[in-house]
Amino acid sequence: MVPGARLVLLGKQGAGKGTQCVRLARHYVIPHISTGEIFRNAVKLGTEFGKRAKEFMDAGELVPDDVVVGVVAERLGRDDVKVRGLLLDGFPRNVHQSEALEGLLPPRGIDLVIDLEVPTEVVLKRLSSRRVCVNCETNYGVDNPPSIDGKCDDCGDRVIQREDDTEAAIQRRLFLYEEQTAPLIAWYMGKDKLVAVDGVGSPDEVTFRLTRAIDLRLRNV
Ligand code: AMP
User: How many angstroms is it from 219 CA to the middle of ligand 1?
Assistant: First the structure.
C-alpha cells in the first residue's frame, strides 16, 4: 500500500473492527485513530469532557457531532497523520461526519472505506462475550480468548467487559448503526471509495482478506 494512505474501517460494533484496526495499523504502520478510544481515555482521566461523553456512551447514544468532529480535527492536525496517513475506527458514523471529514483532509479526502460485513446475529453473539484490555484496548471474545483468563496477551493488564456493553446499549447502538451509519455505505460507493470485505471467520482469515482488498484497491493511489 502507498505511504500516507487514508483509510476508514466501517462496521457494526462487534464486527471485529477494533481488533482488525489494531492489526492493520501495525501491518501498514499507520496511526490508528479510534474516536471511542479517545472518549474512553477522557473518561478514565475524569475530565469534564470525559464525564459528558460517558453519559452518551453508557446509553448507547452517539456523542454530538460537533464534539466528535472537534476531537477528530485536533487529532488529524498532528504531524504523524500528514506523513503516514491514517486508519479511522468508529468515525465517521453518519453522513454529516463524513462531510466534515472530507473538509478535514484536503485535497482528496479519504482514499478508501472498507465495509467489514458481519450479520447482526453473529455480532450480537460476539458482543455478549466481548472483553477488552483496560490498558491497550486489545479485544477478546469466544473466538479469540486471552491465553490466561482475564489477562491481556499483549500488555498483561486486566481484561474486562466494557461498561457500555449492556444489552440495552447494544440494541440501541445497532439501531443507530442501521439508521445513521449504514447509509454511509451507499454514500462512499457513490464516490467509488468503498470496498466490502466478509468479516466472518477467524481474525487471521479476516486480516488476510482486508489486506488483500486494500492492496488491490490502493495500488494506484
Ligand atoms: P466505539 O468504541 O467506536 O464503539 O465507540 C464507543 C462510544 O463512543 C459510542 O457508542 C459512542 O457513544 C461514542 N462514539 C465513538 N465514536 C463516535 C462518533 N464518531 N460519533 C458519535 N459518537 C461516537
Answer: 31
- Closest atom of ligand 1 relative to the 13 alpha carbon: 4
| Per-domain residue ranges of the chain | 6-210
**Residue 202, φ and ψ in degrees, nearest 5:** -70, 155
Could you read off the pLDDT of 170-192 as tens digits, one per residue? Answer: 899 999 999 999 999 999 999 99
CA of 218 to the centre of ligand 1 (A): 27
How many C-beta atoms surround the C-beta of residue 184 within 10 A? 20
128 φ/ψ angles, rounded to the nearest 5 degrees:
-70, -20
How many angstroms separate the CA atoms of 175 and 141, rounded? 22
Going from the Cα of 179 to the center of ligand 1, the distance in angstroms, rounded, reads: 15
Reduced to 3 states (helix: H, G, I; strand: E, B; else coil), residue 172 is: helix
CA–CA separation, 133 and 50 (whole Å): 19
Q: DSSP state, 158?
A: B
Confidence of residue 1 (pLDDT cuts 50, 70, 90): low
Measured by CA distance, the residue closest to atom 6 of ligand 1 is: 36
Q: From the CB of 98, is ligand 1 less than 6 Å away? A: no
Topology of the domain covering 6-210: Rossmann fold (3.40.50)
| Whole-number Å distance between alpha carbons of 125 and 72 | 31
H helices present in 77-159, as ranges: 79-84, 95-104, 120-129
Report pTM.
Answer: 0.89
Closest ligand 1 atom to Cα of 173: 10
